[in-house]
Design goal:
With 184 residues, this protein is α+β, with helices and mostly antiparallel strands. It is elongated. The strands form two sheets. Strands 4, 5, 6, 7, 8, 9 and 10 form a seven-stranded mixed beta sheet that branches. A three-stranded antiparallel beta sheet has the order 1-2-3, with no helix packed on it. Helix 2 packs across helix 3. It is built from three helices and ten strands, in the order βββββββαβββαα. The longest helix is centred in the middle third of the chain and has 13 residues.
Length: 184
């Protein structure tokens, strides 16, 4: 594949829409639509920087899951605590801020932060870190008026039932499955 040009189509507050013109393997010019959380100057910028964090949090052998309304699917689903890295913020600072904002909890220990991975390669270059942490404290709501989030710790047995009856984001579903299987 040979990239010819990258053109910004729309500049939203959180997402930027781009059209990539490229030559396919048959040598035909094609167009591809994508979104990014970053301002891209040219194709070399695509996927270069992480933009967010997903947090896998535990407390006394229980897994933190959020029930949150997601506008893009028009329903409440189970999800991980997550958010965008602000300008000048480190991954560790973002983890602490997002966990507190969405749950009121604090970090007892950061176990590990995995290298950034792509979140939606079919439509976006969004890369996020996955952090595994131990959390502590009391639940409280510090979210904006635009978010509806209910945070709770769940046992393996509770998560197993949720997997059969509830809808999840893909990352949270994978984490929930591995938690139930005893892998985390």
């Amino acid at each position: 594949m040979e990239f010819i040009k990258l053109e910004k189509i729309k500049d939203g507050k959180y997402l930027k829409n781009y059209e990539i013109t490229y030559l396919n393997k048959a040598g035909k010019e094609k167009k591809y639509e994508m979104v990014s959380r970053k301002d891209l100057r040219d194709v070399s910028d695509i996927g270069r920087r992480a933009s967010g964090i997903s947090i896998v949090a535990f407390h006394e052998d229980r897994l933190l899951l959020l029930r949150e309304f997601r506008m893009s699917v028009n329903k409440t689903i189970f999800n991980l605590c997550a958010g965008m890295i602000e300008d000048g913020e480190t991954a560790e600072e973002c983890i602490r801020r997002e966990l507190y904002e969405e749950t009121g909890l604090s970090i007892k220990k950061i176990r590990t932060i995995l290298p950034p991975s792509y979140a939606a390669v079919g439509i976006s270059d969004t890369k996020t870190y996955i952090a595994i942490v131990d959390a502590e404290g009391e639940f409280s709501d510090h979210t904006s008026d635009n978010e509806m989030i209910q945070a709770q710790f769940y046992t393996r047995e509770e998560v197993e039932k949720l997997l059969d009856t509830e809808e999840f984001s893909s990352r949270s579903q994978m984490i929930a499955y591995f938690f139930v299987q005893g892998f985390c």
